[in-house]
Design goal:
The protein is mainly α. The protein folds into 2 domains: about 5-85, no CATH class; about 100-175. It is about 75% helix and about 0% strand. Helix 3 packs antiparallel against helix 4 and helix 7 packs antiparallel against helix 8. The protein starts with 6 loop residues before the first helix and ends with a helix.
Length: about 180
């Protein structure tokens, strides 16, 4: 059972996304918020930098959610259930990963290739400094070679979106 806690400690723990919820006893909610926040940072750092724009939104959500939970009336607070952020139980998550196994595999492979590509390019960049390649051509190559993983991830995201829309349309057509 969750208990209301000291407001000062809740404030300090809520500065870390998910930690405030965990301190209040909502471990599933806190862990899912923390995982989503750190996962977004990892994805933005390695694959798709515009995801960094979502991190302040997630941080503010977590901060205000933990503080609002602690400031609820006692009967409302004790009525709250500890559930995952998107109501994803491990069983639902397992079924979802099984049904979208191929797109998830593509995303994982693309992330691995992106990290590998960036490391190989960094090594080539050091070697290219000593080769007689004009600076303009070197800058042009550097721009396009560093853009390949991002372009591939953008195409993959668009492909997954189109596939999801088609599946939804097919299910609507079947229900009619």
């Amino acid at each position: 059972m969750t208990n209301k806690k000291n407001k000062l400690f809740v404030f300090f723990f809520s500065l870390i996304p998910g930690a405030g919820e965990m301190y209040l006893g909502f471990y599933k909610m806190g862990a899912s918020v923390m995982f989503l926040f750190l996962g977004t940072i990892a994805m933005a750092a390695s694959l798709f930098p515009p995801l960094f724009y979502l991190t302040p939104v997630m941080w503010f959500f977590s901060f205000f959610h933990a503080n609002n939970l602690n400031s609820m009336a006692d009967d409302e607070f004790y009525a709250q259930e500890d559930d995952y952020l998107f109501h994803m139980s491990p069983d639902k998550l397992r079924r979802l990963t099984i049904s979208y196994r191929k797109p998830l595999a593509c995303v994982m492979i693309l992330m691995g290739l992106s990290v590998l590509w960036n490391h190989l390019w960094a090594g080539f960049h050091y070697i290219a400094q000593w080769l007689p390649i004009p600076h303009v051509l070197q800058s042009f190559l550097q721009y396009w070679v560093r853009s390949i993983p991002r372009l591939a991830s953008a195409f993959l995201i668009i492909w997954i979106g189109v596939k999801l829309i088609r599946q939804k349309k097919d299910s609507l057509d079947e229900s009619e």
